[in-house]
Amino acid sequence: MARRGEKLIVAAAVLLLGIASAAAEERPDRVDSIRDVFARMRTCWKPPPASKAHPIDITVIVSFNRDGNILGHPRITYESAGASDNDRLQYRIAVMEALQRCTPMPFTETMAGASAGRPFAIQFRGRKSSPQETPQAKERRA
To answer: Is residue 35 part of a domain?
Structure first.
């Protein structure tokens, strides 16, 4: 009789571990923090090819509802100085396409409540910049 009870406990533990691992597998797909929102947007970002536009940086302010859909209208708040009208147009199209690819944002229940209606300023970069690439940031050695 004790043997049967042990088997039931082991079976229950295996079942619970299976459920827990399935939940953990779903978790990376879910957006559970502000950092996750930005990381997910980076995965959706595809800047226009260099043949269509010169690289620029652009920032958009966007809000989401609880379901992760865009709330209202996204608003461009920054574009690199000196960008041509064509560059701006191409990058604005790319930003809207990235927002379409990433929405609805798969918020966890907690994040859905915390982020609903709140504005996110999301920066999209047309070029990679690092301290080594900028002349002002070059290290001088004695």
So the answer is: yes
